[in-house]
Amino acid sequence: MSEVTVEGLEAQLEELAEIVTALTDKQDQRIEGLEQALTELRDGIGGLTSRRASGPGEEPHPRPWTARATPQQWSELADWVDWLHAHYQPQGEYRIPPCWPDHAGAAEELAGLQASWKAAMLAAEQSHDNGDQALYWHDRYLWDTLIRANRVIPNACRNTGHTSPRELPPTDRTGLPQVNGQPGAAPATW
Fold first, then answer.
1. Helix axis angle, 104-126 relative to 71-88, nearest 10°?
2. Looking at the 3D structure of the chain, how many domains does it have?
3. Residue 84: which residues within 8 A CB-CB, separation 6 or more?
4. Is residue 180 part of a domain?
5. Of 60, 65, 41, 37, whose CA–CA distance to 50 is shortest?
6. What φ, ψ does residue 69 adopt, rounded to 5°?
7. Which one is predicted more confidently, 21 or 88?
8. Are strands 178-179 and 182-183 parallel, antiparallel or unpaired?
């Protein structure tokens, strides 16, 4: 049996103190990391709640395609719509008038249609046309979306020439529920 000495106990106590100090330092680093993550999360939530509270006429968040698209993306969409017309030659309620870029709702619909077309055609190509992606796109998206896009374009644009979109009155907020004396304010959910 080995003999316990004061020097041996002091060495073990010193080693134990170093281990506790190292663990404490690691714990402090973890706490700092958690506090930083919590601050970032609070900031993110604050940004979301401020976005949610947009007023009349303000752009919603996230922004619509028409607000975030680059001139290049607009040009690509115009080229694609021209190709779509030449390729499918839609008639009647399916034909999009050339002034569609002036009608934000139509542009949003067509941008969505183009994005879904790209996804469907890429999936069909990657599957070596062994799937129904292209058929599904034609059946589910093409014709219904062209009709929806035309619903936001005035009939005059198809019949007599372009008519600028008219500004509609903002929502009458007097009928919204009152929260803390403010119309339409949403209570916090956290």
1. 70
2. 2
3. 90
4. no
5. 60
6. -70, 145
7. 88
8. antiparallel
